[in-house]
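Lab notebook, bench 4. Still working through the backlog of constructs that have no structural model yet. Next entry is a single chain of 353 residues. Request: give me the structure tokens for it.
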Amino acid sequence: MKIIVFSPTSTNLRLEGDQPLGGADSVLLKMIESLAEHHEVEAYLPIKKEIEGEYRGASCYPFMELFNGEKECDIIIHNRKVFPIPNTIKYKKSVFYSQDTVDTPCFKGLKGHRNALDFYDKIWVLSQFHKENMQEMFDIPDEKFLIIGNFSPDQEAVEKVPLQFIYASTPFRGLDVLLKAWISIVEKYPTAKLHIFSSMAIYGAEELDDLHFGKMFADMKGGRFKNLIFHGSVPQEEMLEVMRESFMLLYPNTYPETFCNVLMEARAARTPFITSDLGCLKETGSHAGCFISGNARSPEYLKKFLETLDFIIADPKFYQTLQNNCYPIRTIKDYQKDLLKEINGLKIKEIKD
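Model written out:
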């Protein structure tokens, strides 16, 4: 079977090396690799012309090259951003693989166009919350959806470093809230340490760190916050090494995520968490952490966040319960099994053009 993956997003991907990647890009590349083990795959991605070529079994090209000449495939998988499919391509089945809420730029200009995704045969989403969010904007019947989710590498358990905490997400998903909380936390627990893994570099836009978060980043790098170690964005394994030994993930999230890879990564590392009751976070996090409701930037939220942390630190049995609830997780093998089952289950009939 021949599959074309079309991803007209703005991230500047490098296919090899240790480029820090966001969750959506990591999953995209793993999907391409998984499909290429069983099918012929051409992927049209946000890459530069000079790095096109084979990547883990797939032929990869800059996404605009899909418009150059006629092409034919059994299935086209359209990733994330709603963008016209070239009329030069002929296909038998089409999939829209969404990883975003409908208020993001990926759906720009489609408000009020409730039938805009009708021509896709299937819509892949990451969670029940994500599905319901899509149905707020589009008239999509339940049977068209597949909740495919994401995954995390299985990890070995290691001894936890007491009062070592971690934040591993973009700077616009509650980092400012955590820094405000950290002043109180480190005052009450002077030996506590906080590792920060955060930067816009995962989107290929490191310059936005200074443009939009300049003072916050300068304060973190300049020593304003006691016992804070700032890492920026690093290859995933480097972050996961710290995650495995951390006592907790502190994530006062302000963004309604559609899956939240870092919660699954925390669960894989047996690292409980405190986060917000927002978006899909309870769905992904399950019973491995505590969820704070309300506006994350309100005094009431901050008070509840700090009280919850105090409770967990003071009650080792409750902490152990959270750890025990980290597993089972969704592994790469689980994702690959569901992905291939869905692909092989699509009934390929006539060519569409």
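Notes after review: DSSP finds ten helices and 16 strands in the chain. The chain has two domains: 2-150+332-345, 161-324. Flag for follow-up if needed.
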